[in-house]
């Protein structure tokens, strides 16, 4: 779908990075192209999928802009590729999305309406669980400074809104010129979205959640769910260096040194990784029990 310069609706570029989730990507694109908003495009960055995803997108969705990459980008760099491409067509907003979500049809209109009445604001969606749609999964991000945790708020009053996820967040296009792009060096995968929104807040932009913009997360497709299933004693400390893990030490250290009060960093690191050790111990025990049940 191309931009309509005569449209009263601001032009929105929807950008998402995909990798080896052909069925999820296809389902998302079918629904996304039917969004009742008259002036948007979809940019898909495929980072070297080997399951036929890019060919499916090209065949089934010819109006979607497809960027084929080689499989070495990770999330932040893949999103930067998509955003840079989208900015050449001068959108008013970039909407960053995941392919493992469903949504209410009017979610995009709600985001744009909020952004139009609140200049210099990054606006996120509220996210529920797809299986149990009464279960709130995310209402913005909060920080627990003493424990080193970046957590999802469980309601709109659950602490101060500190960061936004890369799932259904509408970003004014000028933000990328003001603060640069996602930090692909320090946050190649986990927390790239949180870091970006916190940098925007430091630069004077406000952060908001619009409760009328509703998404549903397919939590069974998440990396965290896969990590829990595959936990073993031999891989007990693997999350500390895996880019796919939110427990990766280098990623969390970069987050702490950039945003935490210096006096709290030793406390945050100590508490966070003490909790990690306890949780990982329980994950391994549960995974062993689940594997025994399947035998």
Structure, described:
The chain is α/β, with parallel strands linked by helices. It folds into two domains: 12-221, Spore Coat Polysaccharide Biosynthesis Protein SpsA, Chain A, CATH 3.90.550.60; 224-294, no CATH class. Helices cover 37% and strands 21% of the residues. The strands form two sheets. Strands 1, 2, 3, 4, 5, 6, 7, 10 and 11 form a nine-stranded mixed β-sheet that branches.
Offer a quick outline of the entry.
With 295 residues, the protein is of the alpha/beta class. It has helices spanning 22-32, 53-60, 74-87, 107-117, 174-179, 192-202, 223-229, 249-259, 265-294, and strands spanning 12-18, 40-47, 65-69, 93-96, 101-103, 121-129, 136-138, 141-144, 149-152, 169-172, 206-217. It is built from nine helices and eleven strands.
Labels describing this entry:
295 residues; 2 domains; alpha/beta; two-stranded antiparallel ribbon; 21% strand; nine-stranded mixed beta sheet
Q: β content, as a range? A: 15-25%
What is the number of helical segments per DSSP (H or I, 4+ residues)? 9
Instruction: Using the alpha-carbon principal axes, give the shape.
Output: globular
Per CATH, the class of the largest domain reads Alpha Beta
CATH topology of the largest domain, by name, is: Spore Coat Polysaccharide Biosynthesis Protein SpsA, Chain A
- Kindly state the mean pLDDT as a whole number? 92
Q: Report the helical percentage.
A: 25-40%
Uncertain stretches of 5 or more adjacent residues: none
Question: Helix and strand layout, with pairings?
Answer:
Blueprint: E1 12-18, H1 22-32, E2 40-47, H2 53-60, E3 65-69, H3 74-87, E4 93-96, E5 101-103, H4 107-117, E6 121-129, E7 136-138, E8 141-144, E9 149-152, E10 169-172, H5 174-179, H6 192-202, E11 206-217, H7 223-229, H8 249-259, H9 265-294
Parallel strand pairs: 1-2, 1-4, 2-3, 6-11
Antiparallel strand pairs: 4-10, 5-11, 6-7, 6-10, 8-9
Helix pairs in contact: 1-2
């Amino acid at each position: 779908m191309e931009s309509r310069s005569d449209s009263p609706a601001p032009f929105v570029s929807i950008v998402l990075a995909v990798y080896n989730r052909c069925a999820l990507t296809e389902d998302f694109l079918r629904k996304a192209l039917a969004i009742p908003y008259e002036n948007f495009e979809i940019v898909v960055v495929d980072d070297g999928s080997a399951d036929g995803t890019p060919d499916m997108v090209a065949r089934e969705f010819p109006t979607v802009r497809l960027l084929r990459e080689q499989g070495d980008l990770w999330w932040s760099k893949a999103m930067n590729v998509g955003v840079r491409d989208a900015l050449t067509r001068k959108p008013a907003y970039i909407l960053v999305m995941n392919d493992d979500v469903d949504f209410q049809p009017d979610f995009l209109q709600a985001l744009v309406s909020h952004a139009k009445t609140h200049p210099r604001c990054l606006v996120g969606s509220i996210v529920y669980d797809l299986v149990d749609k009464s279960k709130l999964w995310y209402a913005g991000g909060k920080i627990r400074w003493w424990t080193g945790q970046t957590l999802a708020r469980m309601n709109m009053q659950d602490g101060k809104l500190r960061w936004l996820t890369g799932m259904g967040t509408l970003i004014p296009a000028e933000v990328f010129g003001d603060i640069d792009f996602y930090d692909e060096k320090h946050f190649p995968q986990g927390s790239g979205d949180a870091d970006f929104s916190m940098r925007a807040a430091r630069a004077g932009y406000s952060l908001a959640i619009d409760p009328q913009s509703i998404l549903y997360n397919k939590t069974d497709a998440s990396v965290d769910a896969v990590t829990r299933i595959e936990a073993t004693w031999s891989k007990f400390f693997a999350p500390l260096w895996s880019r796919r893990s939110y427990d990766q030490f280098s990623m969390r250290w970069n987050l702490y040194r950039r945003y935490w009060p210096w006096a709290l960093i030793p406390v945050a690191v100590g508490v966070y990784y003490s909790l990690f050790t306890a949780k990982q111990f329980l994950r391994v025990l549960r995974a062993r029990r689940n594997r025994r049940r399947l035998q």
